[in-house]
Amino acid sequence: MKKLVIFLFFLLSAPIFAQQITHLKTVSHHYFDSLPSASGVGIYQNKIYLVADDLPWLIEMNFEDAILHKYQLSGITKMEHGRTPKKIKADFESMTFVHQRDADYFLIFSSGSKKVTRDTAYLFSLSTKKVLAKRNLRPWYNNIKEKAGMGADDEINIEGSAVVDGNIYLAHRGNVSGNFLAVSSLNDFLSYLSGKTNRVPEVEIITFKLPSRQGVSAGLSGLCAMPGNDGLLVTASLEATTDVLSDGTVLGSYLGYIPLKTIHEGKIYLTPITGENNQMMAKKQEGITLMDMNKQGRYRVLTVCDNDDGTSDTWQFLFELNQAK
Q1: C-alpha dihedral over 129, 314, 257, 10, to 10 degrees?
Q2: Are 7 and 275 within 8 A, CB to CB?
Q3: Are 179 and 212 contacting, i.e. CB atoms less than 8 angstroms apart?
Q4: CA atoms within 13 A on the CB side of 230
Q5: Which residues pair with 94 in a beta bridge?
Q6: Which class is domain 16-321?
Q7: Maximal CA-CA distance, the chain
Q8: pLDDT by residue for the chain (325 residues), tens digit each?
């Protein structure tokens, strides 16, 4: 009886990694040998938009994988071998779509993993194709660190962002200091970003326990909103590194979702992304955006991979979702 009680306690208190995503299927894959470090992705009016942590631009592509435009974001223009040098790069790691006051935008975030060069956000207008506002977010990032209980020597690593139901969610990749979402009011954040106020937005921290493999903890790496604002679709990657600045051996990635109705319970549902041999693909999925959901309830998403070698991938996945109770 004692063993049964212990087992039930472990079962009820353990994090949830149940495979609620089923029938996961690769629809397409494209490899870019001259596009380094793709890390964030969005779709607008049948065009694909990408940011990369080693590039200073927002890149516009069509669905035939042709690059149409490069819109300057960062003021850093120095390039070495087609990439911004690591010491000065803006480290764009996430982007999300925003519809506000009958206008459409992309919000683009630096990771925050380094002061000065990596802590700026940009509001990019999709009508004028120009940066409408930008701001150094170090005070807000410090607020996030404090609320998350991070040490003075630890640095945040924002890798995903999404807007849902009037809030903005930022995903901290916790391969070093634990995974969490930082949540703020979208209106408060946009007022701060545009300079209408200097008041740093209030933030709520929601922590998550992710699985480990071969001693490596998975880290949240991408985020987007689900249809109907019911939850968040996520990617989580396994990378053997001990800090937020260095690359490491990639063991694979997960695709998953977080239901909003149980988000404060830390529930996250993850499924390994596998290849033809049914083994986990050694790919670092870094960004995700929803393409569509058909009448049969199948979701199609577009993801991007940073290969850490000056190349990138885009993937399309199709899957079904068993809504968690």
Answers
A1: -140
A2: no
A3: no
A4: 9
A5: 109
A6: mainly beta
A7: 68
A8: 444 333 333 333 334 455 588 999 999 999 999 999 999 999 999 999 999 999 999 999 999 999 999 999 998 889 998 899 999 999 999 999 999 989 999 999 999 999 888 999 999 999 999 999 999 999 999 999 999 999 888 889 999 999 999 999 999 998 667 899 999 999 999 999 999 999 999 999 999 999 998 889 999 999 999 988 889 999 999 988 655 455 678 999 999 999 999 999 999 999 999 988 889 999 999 999 999 988 778 999 999 999 989 999 999 999 998 865 4
Distances (CA, A) of 75 to 56, 78, 89, 228: 7, 9, 10, 37
DSSP symbols for 147-200: HHT--TT----EEEEEEETTEEEEEE--TTT-EEEEEEEHHHHHHHHHTS--PP
Please name the residues in contact with 32: beta carbons below 8 A apart, sequence gap of 6 or more.
Answer: 38, 65, 311, 312, 313, 314
CB 164: neighbour CB atoms within 10 A?
21
Q: Look at residue 258 and give its three-state secondary structure.
A: strand
Bridge partner list, 135: 121
List the domain boundaries for the chain.
Answer: 16-321
- Please report where in the chains the tokens 């996961």 appear, as a residue: 24
CA distance 261 to 263: 6
Write down the pTM of the prediction.
0.91
